[in-house]
Amino acid sequence: AQSVSQHNHHVILSEAASLELGCNYSYGGTVNLFWYVQYPGQHLQLLLKYFSGDPLVKGIKGFEAEFIKSKFSFNLRKPSVQWSDTAEYFCAFSFSGGYNKLIFGAGTRLAVHP
Amino acid sequence: GAGVSQTPSNKVTEKGKYVELRCDPISGHTALYWYRQSLGQGPEFLIYFQGTGAADDSGLPNDRFFAVRPEGSVSTLKIQRTERGDSAVYLCASSPGQGISGANVLTFGAGSRLTVL
Q1: pLDDT (tens digit, 9 = 90+) per residue, A41-59?
Q2: Quick one: DSSP state of residue A41?
Q3: Confidence (pLDDT) at B85
Q4: CA gyration radius for chain B?
Q5: Can you list the alpha helix ranges (DSSP code H) found in B47-92?
Q6: Which residues of chain A are within 8 Å of residue B56 when distances are taken between CB atoms?
Q7: Rounded to whole angstroms, how far apart are CA atoms A91 and A38?
Q8: Which residues in chain B have their CB less than 8 angstroms from residue A104's CB?
Q9: Is there a contact between B108 and A100 if contact means CB atoms under 8 Å apart?
Q10: Which of A96, A114, B16, B45 is the most buried (most CB within 10 A)?
Q11: Cβ neighbours of residue B14 under 8 Å, at least 6 residues apart?
Q12: pLDDT averaged over chain B?
């Protein structure tokens, strides 16, 4: 069955540290890839998406993600985090034959200390 | 409306009771989705509507769960004979529709937190 693995459940960083959150999906065909973010007390919001083309995609607030097809990965990165990046981050994908369904990972809870 | 609106935001009920959760999608969005998020998990797909019809209900866990969207806008998720295991946040999302390549971005509501005692 299709699934998403997010390697870290909790990450704690200091401000200005670099961030990389791992995401691997299990599906052998064409996929669309997403990162969603949920700030404390807020609803899920789209951070960035990949449909096709350049595998390095840039999202809001300085985040970027790289699609590596051979590794089935879509890791999220940010060179320098801020306290306001404290949130829960969800990787998700949809796939050919099932574009209606987003398959989500369990999420990574990021805490950034000033 | 400006965003996806869900009511109630919180619902506490007793085991065995019937519950309805409402979703009002973004105006003009033809596609509507229900997801369920249990504690410590990511959202899990339940059902997808395109217009008035349920195009994919493969995620509904059993026949106690049912959803409708009679006029192609507001949707109601109905849960009969609630069980403690149904406790979760029920998320609604909408999108303009599905592109040819599946280029489809969902906008989520704040969710309805259901607690079954």
Answers
A1: 999 999 999 988 999 999 9
A2: T
A3: 96
A4: 14
A5: none
A6: 100-101
A7: 11
A8: 42-44
A9: no
A10: B45
A11: B82, B116, B117
A12: 92
- C-alpha closest to that of B90 among B1, B2, B3, B4: B4
Among B65, B82, B25, CA closest to B49: B25
Q: Among B116, B32, B107, B108, which residue's Cα sits nearest to residue B81?
A: B116
Burial class (CB in 10 A: 0-12, 13-18, 19+), B13: middle
Chain segment B69-81, per-residue pLDDT in tens: 999 999 999 999 9
Would you say A33 and A6 are in contact if contact means Cβ atoms under 8 Å apart? no
Residue A2 · residue A21 · CB < 8 Å: no
Lookup: tokens for A42: 């807020």
Residues of chain B below pLDDT 50: none
Touching check for B56 and chain A: CB below 8 Å? yes
Q: Is B105 part of the contact surface with chain A (CB cutoff 8 Å)?
A: yes
At A6-31, the pLDDT tens digits run 988 999 999 999 999 999 999 988 89
- The residue of chain A nearest to residue B4, with distances taken between CA atoms, is A43
| Tokens 């970027």, located at residue | A64
Asked if B46 and B55 touch (Cβ cutoff 8 Å), the reply is no
List C-alpha distances in Å: A107 to A60, B2, B66.
18, 27, 27
Interface of A with B in 56-85 (CB under 8 A): none
